[in-house]
Amino acid sequence: MRFMLLMIPKGYETAKPDTMPDPKAVSAMMKYNESLQKAGVLLGLDGLHPLSAGARVSFSGGKAKVMDGPFVATKEVVGGYWMLQVKSKEEAIDWASRCPASDNEVIEVRQVQEFADFRPEVQEAASGFRELKDEVR
User: Fold this and answer.
1) Rounded to whole angstroms, how far apart are CA atoms 124 and 128?
2) pTM for this entry
């Protein structure tokens, strides 16, 4: 099973575009990342620039509308993620619990939808998905 751990740091929704993490926090996080890698459960990871450096594309009336960040009334913002391959939700939660996060950070644990999870009519609608996904890798 694949799970995505989403790091949600409080206050990141108002961070300036050039905001960088604290080197001590990064050092502690690297030790955690290395433990995920050594355990063989880490598939991918990345940090994300602040919301103020991003953009949102919405679709109203079939037309794309682009809005540059920051965005009004945003309460929680993803600051980074890990993609893990583990045996269960409980194992994913266990790994999230080991993260050296600070008091102002929350990790959301979400299972990735696998093609096999979809009902037959959804699998049919997504025909070609597996091939497309294999090409991306």
Assistant:
1) 9
2) 0.84
- Please choose, from the candidates 94, 112, 103, 104, the residue with its C-alpha nearest in 3D space to the C-alpha of residue 35: 94
Question: Would you state the structure tokens that stand for residue 113, as one six-digit string?
Answer: 């939808």
DSSP tag of 10:
T
In three-state secondary structure terms, 82 is: strand
Please give the DSSP secondary-structure letter assigned to residue 86.
-
DSSP letters spanning 17-80: TT----HHHHHHHHHHHHHHHHTT-EEEEEE---GGG-EEEEEETTEEEEEESP-TT------E
Residues 13-59: pLDDT tens digits?
Answer: 888 888 988 899 999 999 999 999 999 999 999 999 998 888 889 89
